[in-house]
Design brief:
The complex is a heterodimer of chains A (191) and B (167).
Chain A lengths: L1 H5 L2 H7 L6 H26 L13 E3 L5 E3 L7 E7 L4 H17 L5 E7 L4 H10 L5 E4 L4 H6 L6 E5 L5 E6 L5 H12 L1
Parallel strand pairs in A: 3-4, 4-5
Antiparallel strand pairs in A: 1-2, 3-6, 6-7
Chain B lengths: L1 H28 L9 H8 L18 H15 L4 H12 L14 H27 L17 H13 L1
């Protein structure tokens, strides 16, 4: 009997601290989950690897230094050599002449297209670089770094070679050491 | 009489020559750009830009050649009369939003600006609520709160009294 008089329901209820409304608790959890989902999405996106060998490369458009636009979807049926470079990149200069020689070799056949993508560069220096090495194939800036984000490049030079169906077949990280190395990657895709 | 005619004529010819010379000089100066901006002016713009090649290093202190070229580009644009905002727009357009020190206020980027203050306000609301409810907690009926030490819980105190009675 004494125990009953010790704690009355009313006293117990008043002594207990007031709880938050249910909607506040639910909202807090929803916000927390949304925040965690956002972090997961961001991390997942940033950790996605580059386009893998044999993957289909998403279509992209390069705006050339001549102001014209060149879309890869219009180049279906041709081997596409995508070379990332920059005027401030010394290793790019090692392969510049070989790439131009390779372009001159494949140009008459019309089965191979070279696309130079100028990465994080300034236009006057880029034009000067093209002029210095006599590069005549299609070149343009990587506007908003949209193309380099497709391939998730780590630096320059990097070269990606797509077959006639738009699938990635060869990747070269760093400069080509010789014309033979370039042809060794392209010839099997042309024939 | 001739002197009176010759002197004003000479004076007039001199004025015309000077005006013509000034006009030619002005025309010659027109195509020239403004004064070359100082390093401080360039760095004032560069410190709010980041080159993707050197992550997390502001453009004004980045030592690479790529960043030096970017600073030259800023200098050229300042000399051409562009404002800081116009130059930032140019860089964002050419190199992406990630070169900006602050993400532009659009799309999902708004979360960066909205979430922290919202979380802060939510936290303040929770703290205030908990503090207010702690202050308002009434004493247990029948127990004089003045008799209790300030740190004692009335419920515990009463429980102890009841246990003492039993002993």
């Amino acid at each position: 009997m004494e125990n009953k008089s010790l704690i009355t329901p009313a006293a117990d209820e008043k002594a207990r601290p007031r709880q938050l409304p249910a909607w506040v608790i639910v909202l807090a959890f929803v916000l927390l989950l949304a925040f965690l989902a956002l972090i997961w999405w961001g991390l997942n996106r940033s950790q996605q690897g580059s386009v893998q060998i044999n993957d289909s490369v998403p279509p992209f458009t390069l705006t050339g230094f001549d102001g014209k636009q060149y879309a890869t979807k219009d180049l279906a049926g041709k081997v596409i050599v995508v070379n990332f470079w920059a005027s401030w990149c010394d290793p790019c200069k090692q392969e510049a002449a070989d790439l131009e020689t390779a372009w001159q070799y494949y140009r008459p056949g019309g089965k191979v297209v070279f696309m130079g993508v100028d990465w994080v560069d300034t236009e006057p220096e880029a034009r000067s670089y093209l002029s210095q090495f006599g590069i005549s194939y299609l070149n343009g800036p990587d506007l908003r770094t949209a193309i380099s984000q497709i391939f998730r490049i780590k630096g320059v030079p990097e070269t990606y070679i797509l077959d006639k169906t738009g699938h990635l077949k060869n990747v070269k990280i760093g400069p080509f050491s010789s014309l033979g190395e370039i042809r060794g990657m392209i010839d099997p895709l042309v024939n | 009489m001739k002197k009176w005619i010759i002197l004003p004529a000479l004076f007039l010819a001199l004025v015309v020559a000077l005006v013509a010379l000034g006009s030619v000089s002005a025309q010659g100066a027109q195509p020239q750009a403004g004064p070359t901006p100082s390093d401080d002016q360039v760095n004032a713009v560069a410190r709010d830009l980041y080159c993707p090649v050197c992550e997390n290093i502001p453009l004004d202190v980045c030592p690479t050649q790529a960043c030096a070229q970017w600073r030259d580009l800023i200098r050229q644009q300042l000399a051409a009369g562009k404002t800081k905002e116009e130059i930032q727009q140019y860089f964002a357009l050419h190199y992406g939003d990630r070169v900006l020190s602050e993400p532009p206020r659009q799309g999902l980027n708004w979360l960066v600006y909205i979430l922290p203050p919202l979380c802060f306000l939510g936290g303040v609301y929770l703290v205030v609520r908990v503090l207010r409810s702690a202050r308002k907690a009434p004493p247990v009926p029948g127990t004089p709160s003045s008799a209790l030490p300030p740190s004692d819980d009335p419920y515990v105190r009463r429980l102890e009294e009841e246990l003492k009675k039993r002993n």
